[in-house]
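Quick start: what a row looks like.
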Amino acid sequence: MKLARKHLLVVDDNVANVELLMDLLDDHGFDDLHGLHDPRDVVGYCQARCPDLILLDIRMPHLDGYAVMQALAAQFGEAVPPIIVLTAQIDEETRRRAQGMGVRDFITKPFQHDDVLMRIRNALALEQRYQQRHAQATTLERLAVEQARSLDRESRTDTLTKLPNRRALTQMLRMASSDGTPTGLLFIAIDQLDEVIRFHGYAVADTLMLHVSQQLYDKLGETARLGIWGGSELLVILPVVSPEQLVLQAMTLLECFNQDQTLDNLLLPLGVRIGISATAEPFEPERLVHMAALALPQKNGPVRVQSYNEELEARQRHRLHLQQSIRQAAERGEMSLVFQPKLSLSTHRVIGAEALLRWHHPTLGPVSPVEFIPLAEASGDILSIGEWVLDEAMRHIAVWREKRLLDDAFHIAVNVAARQLARHDFADKLLARLKEHGIPPYFLSLEITESGILSDMHNARAQLARLAQVNIAVAIDDFGTGHSSLAYIKTLPFSTLKIDRAFVMDLEHKEVDRHLALAITQLAHAVGCDVVAEGIETKAQADYLRSIGCEAAQGYHYARPLPADEFYDWCTRWQALPPMNNALES
């Protein structure tokens, strides 16, 4: 905008001065001028139409210039229009006081035309630059605020699904807690997404996650809030604490996974588990989410929806405590081996023993292997524990050889976990250990579960073949209770099948169990293997197994698993018994 088009207000009680200034400015192109003779009219005029510049006399009746400026400042604050003071004499006190009130410049009377025009133009130009910069600053501030809001929205939004992310969900939970809103959570874990990534790539997995999120969103009511908690974890926040309603909502969401997910020309299977927590009291968001996560059912289990309870958390904490405590438990002297004798069913002679691991926790006492072995396998601690078991078993073998307890037909069987067998140097390290202890390989045998073999068939075949070369016997433990594949029977170098106690315990009462035991025995013999039955508790069980050709047995009918010293004593006493005495030794 041109300076000449600015709106100027001239205020002076002297009419001649007002007309003189207005004529001067009019002659030089200023066409938006107004003059006032009464200073009391200034504020009202400026309220009606604020000028771009005020030329204000300092000495006037009723209100002097200072009073006018104070009134303008009170009315407009920082938006008060710029002011040039008109005065006949500028003493130091006047200048200091006027400048302190924000005056831009001074014009002395009588007026010098060139000086007046220059000062007016300078003041207008300076104000114009100030206004431009103020407008720019305002625009930048507005843009900064918008960008900050946009970044805040993005920081609370999942980039893929556009659903609230963990940060946003946590804020929602904090607000619900502060407001005292009853709150229920559905913690949704989507399984098998990693398999989709492995077979189809991340792009398909991302699209699938978007597809699933939309399906879940469509099944929720308006009061529910669905968001992404983790990579394959979602969270639903509901203003509901009724267990029945929460379970019903969870079952409704499960319907999305009753069939494979259809994506373009793909059918993609996904599993889902849902943990539920709720509270009607003020709560910590992290704690409520943790409760729902603790309630998640185990993978591949029969239950897909589970609600939190204190007993469940106690079990989980106990499990976590065990998992943390099992690390280096062997090094701390908390673990030991016990030995359960194996006997020939035909000669009743002791032919070996199975080494079994025991853990005595310093505060919890004895912990069942059924409880701690899966934890050790899941955490990877089974590798160090397995090495300790092998060393400890070999140490006892060496001692018993010196005591002449072991002959060439006697062996100690050690259980090997799937993770141990999966190591490509397992066989070489095992043979090195035997050499270090000075033990011939045939004094040691290995027992491996079907799952341990099937997890990596190619490597299992290579490791077992290496052991077979030096006559280390390998038994398939718990045969028939896992995901059996008869294909490995003809390709893997094992020498024994063990009939699981599940097929032995009801031999006396169930014909089907007798048929199964017979079938396993005949299958083993057909492929050149012998058979060991475990869990023998009665003479009738032993007699039947001997009648169908089962070679060996172990169980409480003969002896419980015994500490090393007791095992040695038991073997010494047993060898002195008549060959066919079936008495139960304690």
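That is the whole record. The longest strand covers residues 350-361. The chain has a mean pLDDT of 87.
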